[in-house]
Amino acid sequence: LAQNRLLELFGLKQPGQPLDEAEWGVNVQPYSGSPANLAVYTGLLNPHDRLMGLHLPDGGHLTHGFATLTKKISATSIFFESMPYGLNICDSVGAILLADMSHISGLVAARVVPSPFTHADVVSSTTHKTLRGPRSGMIFYRRKARPGAQELQPPPYVPADQLESRLNNAVFPSLQGGPHENVIAGVACMAREVSQVKSSICFMHPERWIFSSHIVI
């Protein structure tokens, strides 16, 4: 139920469409955002693979890998090689593009800001920030390659048809034990509520739209 509602909320699945026929899937078992990101790294990377992310003062997060010249601050920097980047080079090197939309997921759901799903291979998020749900995490992943990805040289580091199995295995049993089913039920309720709020927001007067956006932020 939670998977269905989340995929429909972000426009990744048509109502009534079977889950296994959607181009995207979602894992709703991560306990929060940091475990969700670590599951992505564990499932898709090998130890000491290189991870590139935004610098912390520029919008990055500790779980994207943060270190100084003398100390590795984040566990991500201990297990993987992390470094900041300023250019979009994913396609040119066959890298996986992960978008962490934890802070803006509510605005993405409301179609107030551009969606990362158009460009990303994997999207992670928390559920307790702008989605104002229970504290939890989720990982969205493509089931089919991005348009044009088949022609990339070098090819993608992990093919799209392997993302689901590798990410699900990374969440359980690699990193977590049993899922918090009470929290997942709350996430399903959250997705339902947000979809109803989104419908009312989309038909607001332009001035009310701007006001609502400022309140959400």
Model description:
The chain is α/β, with parallel strands linked by helices and 217 residues long. The protein has one domain (2-216): Type I PLP-dependent aspartate aminotransferase-like (Major domain) (Aspartate Aminotransferase, domain 2, 3-Layer(aba) Sandwich). It contains eight helices and six strands, in the order H-E-H-E-H-E-H-E-H-E-E-H-H-H. The chain has helices at residues 2-9, 33-44, 75-79, 90-93, 105-109, 160-175, 181-201, 206-216, and strands at 24-27, 50-53, 81-84, 98-100, 122-126, 137-142. The strands form two sheets. It has a four-stranded mixed β-sheet with strand order 1-6-5-4, sandwiched between helices. Helix 3 links the parallel strand 2 (50-53) and strand 3. The chain is globular. The two termini are 28 Å apart.
CATH class: Alpha Beta
Low-confidence stretches are: 203-217
Give the terminus-to-terminus CA distance: 28 Å
Structural class, from helix and strand content? alpha/beta
Q: What do the pLDDT scores average to?
A: 82
Strand content: 5-15%
How many structural domains in the coordinates? 1
Fraction of residues in H or I helices: 25-40%
Superfamily (CATH H level) name: Type I PLP-dependent aspartate aminotransferase-like (Major domain)
Give the spatial strand order of the biggest sheet: 1-6-5-4
Global geometry: globular
Number of DSSP helices? 8
Listing every helix as H and every strand as E from the N terminus to the C terminus, the arrangement reads HEHEHEHEHEEHHH
Tell me the number of strands.
6
Q: What is the fold named in CATH at topology level?
A: Aspartate Aminotransferase, domain 2
- What Rg is obtained from the alpha carbons, in whole angstroms? 17 Å
Largest β-sheet summary: 4 strands, mixed
**CATH arch. level architecture:** 3-Layer(aba) Sandwich
